[in-house]
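Action item from last meeting closed. Structure (536 res):
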């Protein structure tokens, strides 16, 4: 059960709940900002044992990890895997509604009376045992997966928390528990189910976790504002009022292309916008990652991590709004955290394989075997390259002996790229493929309704096509209509593969990549810490 190191009063009055499934969510990545800032705080240098012990004594602790560890995959080394949970709930720690004025008027987030307990941000940080680059992996919230610790059925990964929490509430009903105690105990079940589901999907153990909800993000954003972000394109996301027939939506965010400075309310809008984005929720995941990078960059560049007064201010917010597991020794973790505050973190988004409709809800389909291969390779548990599954038996097969080209031969194929998001995206991806050694071919638009990325190839281009297809997590298919020696890539809106610009720390054009995820079929470009990444 979650315990409080210090007593805490609500102080914010009645507060509401999270959006219905399909309604515009409140801060997806936003809440994980609090977790990441917490980690940055823990890794700060120059503070005494007293400051760390004071923070540890005041944290809200949870025992949810104990059940998850019973079913965890084995540890293969002494690295640490930390799960950041962004809980999209409009309740405080005791189950009281967040103030309606705060939710509706200040955040433009719709009614306080709608919602639930979705985990709309799930990021696993892999901290190597011997130091070095930290790998951060985002799990898209709508991935349709097998839940563990919930009801054991297939659901969107974000729903495991709420399903388990509701079941726990029903089991605890009638025991005479106070509202606050019922809330704490049922949330423990939700946390445990979320941890176990992520462990099962990625096939890695979770060593520690941190959870923060809506108000936690807002409080910490207020503590560190203004925060700079960078956009590749201008955005205009007008608010649509909620009516009896329309759930409403929009954030009211209007920003130009380039770098902008945001206050806390704008920060919420930045990380929760999903309308008017080419890839919807998937682009919003990249917003989460970029925002976390920008916050870490500010903390480091402005010396906040070495300013005792500023750090104590952040400590106060972290102790009030962040939940961590009760096995987390902050003093020990502080020795591993410097890489988290030195720009040595790379964020990637695990790939989806497509979309389908289940029970009236659109979900992301995923390939669990492919995801586990990617995770093993990124975490240095598997050296072999990721190879896409073979095409179905009834798929067209390239005729002739030329189909058995050597798998490790230098790329020779000419690659044409078409993108549903437009020729600009196609051009960016064509350049990225050219940097990998492929010959740049034609670029163009794909139909706007293209829902799945596809790779086809002509005679003699099978090996190159398979390597290209692995980049997107799909299978390459032979087509008699594609000229010999040529590969055709058709990018759906769910894939934006153009390189992410970072003002500092990015390799120069043509410079060999040191990206451990290079060539892996990630969902869009990596977001690298150490600067202010530009995203869509």
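Sequence:
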């Amino acid at each position: 059960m979650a315990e409080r190191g210090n007593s805490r009063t609500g102080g914010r009055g009645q507060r509401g709940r999270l959006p219905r499934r399909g309604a515009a969510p409140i801060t997806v990545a936003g809440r994980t900002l609090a977790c990441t800032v917490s980690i940055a705080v823990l890794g700060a240098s120059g503070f005494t044992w007293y400051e760390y012990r004071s923070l540890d004594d005041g944290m809200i602790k949870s025992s949810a990890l104990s059940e998850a560890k019973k079913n965890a995959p084995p540890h293969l080394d002494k690295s640490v895997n930390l799960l950041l949970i962004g809980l999209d709930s409009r309740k405080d720690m005791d189950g009281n509604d967040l103030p309606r004025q705060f939710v509706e008027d200040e955040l433009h987030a719709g009614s306080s009376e709608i919602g639930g307990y979705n985990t709309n941000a799930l990021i696993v940080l892999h901290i190597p045992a011997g130091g070095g680059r930290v790998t951060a992996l985002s799990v898209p919230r709508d991935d349709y997966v097998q839940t563990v610790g919930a009801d054991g059925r297939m659901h969107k990964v974000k729903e495991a928390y709420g399903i388990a929490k509701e079941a726990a509430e029903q089991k605890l009903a009638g025991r005479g528990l106070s509202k606050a105690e019922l809330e704490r105990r049922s949330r423990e079940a939700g946390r445990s189910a979320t941890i176990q589901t992520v462990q099962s999907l990625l096939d890695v153990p979770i060593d520690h976790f941190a959870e923060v909800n809506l108000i936690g993000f807002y409080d910490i954003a207020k503590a560190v504002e203004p925060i700079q972000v960078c956009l590749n394109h201008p955005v205009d996301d007008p608010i649509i009022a909620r009516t009896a027939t329309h759930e409403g939506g929009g954030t009211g965010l209007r920003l130009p292309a380039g770098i902008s400075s945001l206050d806390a309310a704008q920060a919420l809008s930045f990380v929760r916008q999903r309308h008017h984005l080419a890839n919807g929720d998937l682009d919003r995941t990249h917003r989460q990652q970029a925002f976390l990078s920008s916050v870490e960059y500010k903390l480091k560049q402005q010396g906040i991590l070495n300013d005792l007064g500023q750090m104590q201010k952040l400590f106060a917010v972290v102790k009030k709004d962040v939940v961590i597991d009760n096995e987390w020794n902050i003093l020990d973790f502080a020795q591993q955290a410097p890489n988290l505050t030195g720009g040595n973190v790379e964020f990637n988004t695990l790939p989806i394989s497509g979309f389908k409709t289940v029970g009236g809800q659109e979900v992301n389909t995923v390939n669990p075997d492919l995801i586990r291969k990617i995770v093993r390779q990124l975490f240095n548990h598997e050296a072999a390259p990721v190879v896409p599954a073979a095409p179905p038996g009834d798929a067209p097969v390239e005729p002739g002996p030329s189909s058995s080209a050597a798998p490790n031969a230098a790329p020779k194929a000419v690659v044409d790229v078409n993108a549903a998001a437009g020729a600009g995206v196609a051009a960016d991806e064509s350049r990225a493929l050219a940097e990998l050694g492929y010959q740049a071919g034609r670029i163009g638009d794909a139909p706007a309704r293209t829902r799945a990325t596809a790779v086809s190839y002509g005679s003699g281009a099978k090996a190159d096509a398979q390597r290209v297809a692995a980049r997107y997590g799909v299978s390459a298919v032979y087509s008699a209509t594609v000229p010999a020696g040529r590969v055709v890539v058709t990018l759906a809106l769910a894939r934006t593969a153009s390189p992410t610009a970072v003002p500092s720390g990015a390799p120069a054009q043509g410079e060999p990549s040191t990206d451990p995820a290079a060539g892996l079929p990630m969902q869009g470009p990596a977001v690298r810490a150490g600067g202010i990444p530009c995203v869509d």
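Note appended to the action item: Confidence is low (pLDDT under 50) at residues 4-48, 384-395, 400-408, 494-514.
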